[in-house]
């Protein structure tokens, strides 16, 4: 049964740390009336939600389950359980994306962790969908270092049909700077698992380096953004560019200490668009540009685990600067892991509390 809550939000500007100098002076946005509806509340650690072309919400749970949620009646139907999945700590079945031409290419792409001990690792697998069944798994990329945390694992397919994969440093920070390691990167492969000829490093899946634990990816027409966990400071929103270095572990946040400035100059480090200290653990990320909620047009929407909120980051016309930040649902639903949007402009959130986790629909009042 749907539980409907109505909220009138007076949004406060998030506090910024002194290190995040570019965050200063952002305006406080106006109030907005929203309605939230709990569609399902019987999940356990959902990690990804995708609004499918069948008007169902496809979701993964860390234990290995892939399901579909009917947004009209809240019924969750299990599609498939991947027996190889081993959920250790924050590892398990994580990101998922559907082929953009799903009717003619009914493929479901997932990334999950398997094995144990020193052989704990991740892989990207493509399944075929037919008659409410997933079958014919095809491994596209394997042997991604995994750990109990810092696994990244957000998937996204670009307009030119390339698959992007975020990976964390898997507890070995130095690997984020090594191009021969899949850790701490954003990777780019073809939809058949081969390496695109125009990748920045020939024969290498690496698209960008120097990431600690990027758990969100979002695309506009020509720009790619990520959300990334910092250590005890400096969670980040980054504008991702081909072949560029984002600094971890030698740089956290902006290049503003003497040691960081030297490294940033020598490695041409790209600084973040925005940072948070205290950290909020940003996870799922989308770009919103729909008339249903005009106040959110040309914005990044990011959900936070530690921060227990959804945040709107309003972009300027160039998409290279964040003009304002708003916080929604602070503490209302606990830890938020995933976010997606339906074609009619409604936004869906998934919690990650581990007990009776929820999928929530957000729309104007």
UniProtKB/TrEMBL annotation:
Residues 43-356 form the Glucose/Sorbosone dehydrogenase domain. InterPro entries: 6-blade_b-propeller_TolB-like, Glc/Sorbosone_DH, Quinoprot_gluc/sorb_DH_b-prop. Signal peptide: none annotated. It comes from the Bacteria. This is Glucose dehydrogenase. The lineage of its organism: Bacteria, Pseudomonadati, Bacteroidota, Sphingobacteriia, Sphingobacteriales.
